[in-house]
Amino acid sequence: MNDSQKTILMGNEAIVKGAMAAGVQFVACYPGTPSSEIGILFSQIATNNDRLYFEFSTNEKLAMEAVVGASFSGLRCLAAMKSFGVNVALDSLLPFVYTGSKGPAVIVVADDPSCHSSAQSEENSRGFGQLAHIPILEPSNAQECFDFTCLAFEISEKFNIPVMVRITTRVAHQRGIVEFKVQSSKYKVSEGEFVKDKNRFVTMPPRVLEMHQELLDKIGKIREFATQSEINKIYREDPSVNSNAGIITSGVSFLHTMEALEMAGLDIPVLKLGFFYPLPEQKIRDFIRPLEKVLIVEELDPYLEKEVAAIAKDENCRLKIFGKNILPEVGELNPALIAKAAAELAGVSGYEAPEPPELSSVKHVARFCTVPACPYWRVFAAVKKAIPENKAVFGGDIGCYMLGAGPPHNLYDFLFSMGSGIGIAHGISKAAGGRQKPVAFIGDGTFFHAGLPALLNAVYNKSNILLVILDNRITAMTGHQPNPGMGKTGEGESSPEVKIENIVLALGVKPENMKVVDPVDDFEGTVKALQEFYQKNEVSVIVARRICALLEKRAKR
């Protein structure tokens, strides 16, 4: 018997609940905020659970490929990652959409408008809809996170295609009352079996061209499904009100829009789209047909605005479209911004949205943990003591140590993406012809994720860089998830502990150019090693190994 329950859940928690309700059997993630809680929760659930396999994969591409293999074997699968992770996974995601899924597969992607936890870009993953032709659902609240995840599995199973659920920070981390049904999965992980079918799973020409056409035909059918779907709804539609204006929106922008209309005292019909790709074109046509003007409310790039403009050319060529001409294309939206835009749409002159109340807060910059003291304080102090800042070029990477870019260290001269510190340092070294010596920093989790090919390339092409690998025994910044260097899997099982120094030597770094140091117990030895290795004229590596202070405190407790 399925009993309905209500509870308060975070958006990420509701996604996990939805996947479990849909009978998910196989989950692979790489931790990345704002999606990190998804992997952590699945990790806890999968322990001693023979109906669910979970792993923290080494990177997002490998998580995607694990899901592809499990889906080809008939299992119900989910992968979760932040926006930049899709970039890493893209090589395998695109052909997966071509072959289609056998077992239903859902890809959860978390974007971060305003870069609350991101240091690379305000990436907008909605663009992958048209690039990859992958269906995209956009929940706006915790209840929809549950419902849309269940629907994503349903669509994937119905049309044999992976489906993306795209969330943002405000959706992932908001909390709300979620009603759901308690269901025990009837599926087992061990039921998976790969049945050979080269005509389906091998993307070689000319078959791949047939797959492309089959995919486009499939998207056409899903577009019809989207038009009939109840997750595309019109709100504030009152037949007694002869409104010549309307609003089209999706995701968290819908919540801001509804609050904005209350704030401004406006009664404007709102079409909320749960499907972003493929868009329910007929529903949009019906909505804009009687209108004289429409406001498109969306964060970041005007994907939706461009689609509506294209539809309007055939359906209502006189329609005046408001969008990024009155709303910002950078950063998150908020009710005040939308209220002002909606007032302009409605022809209300001189409207000024009320200023949000000022909240007293202590201004501070992000920095390493102080209680207990993070070992990176000692690493960066040793670097500053050993290497003249006016001579060296310092490159950062993605992890806790990226905070070395800010005060009091102010060290990095460049900071890009996962694993890029080594690759960029190599390019600088070659360009400088020996006049500048780059020093690159990378953490243990990031080294396993994307640092190995970069270091191999630097060795192979005879670079002259100093690489400092910061091994704190955990993937710390995203919530203390395990990685191959600590001897434990995502389900908490013991696993071979991969020694970074062994990998470094296997990649061709000479033994005399590799050293392991403890920056806390042997600070002066760390300084000496940095001074010595900085003088070398070939690739050299220092592994600064010291357990994360918070992890050490937890272990003692």
Question: Which features would summarize this protein structure in a list?
Answer:
single chain, 557 residues, alpha/beta, Rossmann fold, 7-stranded mixed β-sheet, 5-stranded mixed β-sheet
Q: Name the helicity range.
A: 25-40%
Largest sheet: 7 strands, mixed
The shape, in one word, is globular
Count of individual domains: 3
CATH third-tier fold name of the largest domain:
Rossmann fold
What is the mean predicted local confidence, pLDDT? Answer: 91
Query: Distance N terminus to C terminus?
Result: 42 Å
Widest sheet: strand ordering: 3-2-4-5-7-6-12
Radius of gyration computed on alpha carbons: 26 Å
% residues in beta strands:
15-25%
Number of helices, where a helix is a run of at least 4 consecutive DSSP H or I residues: 19
Which class do the helix and strand fractions yield? alpha/beta
Which spans have pLDDT < 50 for at least 5 consecutive residues? none
Q: What's the β-strand tally?
A: 19
Question: What is the CATH domain class of the largest domain?
Answer: Alpha Beta
CATH superfamily of the largest domain: Thiamin diphosphate (ThDP)-binding fold, Pyr/PP domains
| Reported CATH architecture of the largest domain | 3-Layer(aba) Sandwich
How would you portray this structure in words?
There is one protein chain. This protein is of the alpha/beta class and 557 residues long. It folds into three domains: 225 residues, Thiamin diphosphate (ThDP)-binding fold, Pyr/PP domains (Rossmann fold, 3-Layer(aba) Sandwich); 114 residues, Rossmann fold; 181 residues, Rossmann fold (3-Layer(aba) Sandwich). It contains 19 helices and 19 strands. The strands form four sheets. A seven-stranded mixed beta sheet has the order 3-2-4-5-7-6-12, with helices on both faces. A five-stranded mixed beta sheet has the order 9-11-10-13-14, with helices on both faces. Helix 1 runs parallel beside helix 6 and helix 11 crosses helix 12. The longest helix has 22 residues. It is globular, with a radius of gyration of 26 Å.
